Amino acid sequence: MGCLNSEGQFEHWFGNIHLSGKCNRSCYFCIGQHMMSLDTFNNLDVWPLTNIDKFVEQCNTKGIKEVNLTGSNTDPLLYKHLEELTKYLRERIPGVMLGVRTNGVGDIDLLKYFDKGSMSITSFNDKIYKNTMGQGHPPIDNLKRLLLSEYPIANNLKINVVLCPELLQLPNRDLDNTVLELFKLGKIKKINVRQPYGQPHIDNPFSDLSIHKIVYGNPCYLIYDMEVTVWDVHYTEVESINLYANGIVSITYPVTKGCHPVYGNVKGQEHFTKSGRVNEQWLKY
Which residues pair with 220 in a beta bridge? Predict the structure, then answer.
């Protein structure tokens, strides 16, 4: 979500609606740390969203058929007007597929509004999960319940695993256990292992395997019959339409730059403490 090589030369294939407000997790790798202009905004109980019409207009201009609800510093399942928003988008973007990017902690029944989605789980290990996502426990029960549901998203769910150093500690790499446990669930077909934005780069943990295919510039591996893509946000070859809580609509993939009123310097991770920036939106929801 913050690629560095995007100069408008890649194809637009999705749109993002970025919500802002308090969160129910406090991940130290939260990309919201680099989107400081959104700190004062909380649109979790706002409808209609500021400049939603302009966002839809840009999506239709670029032929966008997929729109994802996500958060700059919060989780989209905390948004109070999911029914109104998803209805609005389906009415105004013909044939749109609606997705959501969530940590899976909230009300799983709210996922009935979406066709596809991703759930962020760094680990199934309680200690590692808390160390990386700040608080709480892995939403294993929610995940299992969703996969057993009849919601369309249950058959089109991807798991995001942010590549934190804690996941790779030897002698037993926790990342390998996470991939195995996801395979055992039976319905997970895709996993994105994501390089964290603004954190030290971590080497590809699957570089010793044969590449199955390339996904928008990222290597994808076949592990236990699941497609596991090592997704580096700095070099992903896509463009996107983005709507932020401050009403700015951008048409490029680097979301950390697009949200600012003036496109300028984005502060690096050295600006923050080792555990990430403690800010009001990270207080327990």
Answer: 213, 229
Q: Tokens representing 82?
A: 């999911």
Which of the two residues, 175 and 268, has the higher pLDDT score?
A: 175
Give the class (CATH, top level) of 12-263.
Answer: alpha beta
- Over the stretch 235-247, which tens digit does the pLDDT of each residue have? 788 889 999 999 9
Write down the domain spans for the chain.
12-263
Question: Is-cis flag, bond preceding 76, omega within 30?
Answer: no
